[in-house]
Design brief:
single chain; 258 residues; alpha/beta; Rossmann fold; 11 helices; 42% helix; globular; binds adenosine-5'-triphosphate; binds magnesium ion
């Protein structure tokens, strides 16, 4: 399954969703490749506290794809990721085509390929959607972000690819568009609401995905909810809120149910 994480406006939380979703799926035992498809403004590596000067997409492009696995990085969480360096500029059609030609042989080795996409509906998004099975749209609960999320929804639909849903991020519950209205504007089901959470900022500063830094954080729990919504099932390894009490209770219930 190849999933494109997209948005209309920038800075809404695509990369945070891509990273945390990838880590959750890896924790579940899936093989996950996270592709930083935001080729002109890559951030995945920096969120992992890494500056990619070598083993990059553009290095592999220059070498002519001798061995595409040379550009795969492995995060301690088990997530594999691919990133451009900060030198990749001039994204013409040919370069975008070459990038995906280079990436495609990697895909069959993975259960999930998550594309952390760029904002908007330019040709980099076109190539990302072309190479995906479905898209998730990240947005914030305000009109500019929501109407541009609708635009992305129309773009993906025009490419005859399914939209799995929209994720509302940075939800504060105050002075903002509510879930039902947001869903009506975006014309896609809201499959998750991620609260605005200071734990996210702390995790970002430490170069850690928040679901690893603090699995009990409100944002982490919401990321688990999104993963469950996308998979259509409960996660086996989900860290429950409320400490060990919950897990003991679960052990007893599991024991009673055999
Ligand atoms: N739920 C949240 N709680 C607190 N801060 C958040 C949350 N979501 C995002 N942020 C903040 O917003 C910043 C931008 O998020 P992110 O990089 O994921 O956005 P993006 O959509 O990928 O941006 P771009 O369009 O530039 O790629 C994060 O570094 C973080 O500081
Ligand atoms: Mg991003």
């Amino acid at each position: 399954m190849r999933l494109a994480v997209l948005s209309g406006k920038g800075g809404v939380g695509k990369t945070l969703l891509s990273i945390n979703l990838s880590v959750i799926l890896a924790q579940e035992g899936y093989k996950v490749l996270l592709v930083d498809a935001n080729f002109s403004a890559p951030t995945v590596a920096t969120y992992f506290k890494t500056v990619p000067n070598t083993h990059t997409l553009d290095e592999a492009l220059a070498k002519g794809a001798a061995n595409p696995s040379e550009m795969v990085w492995i995060h301690p969480s088990g997530v594999h990721f691919v990133t451009p360096s900060f030198n990749l500029i001039g994204l013409d059609d040919q370069t975008l085509q070459n990038i995906f030609t280079l990436l495609t042989p990697l895909f069959p080795s993975y259960d999930f390929v998550i594309f952390d996409g760029p904002a908007g509906v330019e040709k980099d998004v076109y190539y990302t959607v072309m190479n995906s099975d479905a898209a998730v749209i990240v947005t914030n609960p305000n009109y500019p972000a929501l109407y541009n999320a609708l635009k992305v929804n129309y773009f993906v639909q025009a490419m005859k690819k399914p939209v799995a849903g929209a994720v509302l991020n940075m939800v504060t519950g105050k002075d903002e568009v509510k879930r039902d209205e947001a869903q009506a504007i975006v014309e896609a089901p809201i499959i998750g609401e991620i609260p605005y959470d200071p734990e996210v900022k702390k995790a970002v500063n430490l170069g850690q995905p928040v679901v690893l830094y603090n699995p009990n954080a409100k944002a982490s729990q919401a990321f688990y909810d999104v993963a469950e919504a996308l998979l259509g099932k409960k996660l086996k390894g989900r860290k429950k809120r409320g400490g060990t009490g919950g897990s003991w209770l679960k052990k007893i219930i599991d024991w009673l149910l055999g």
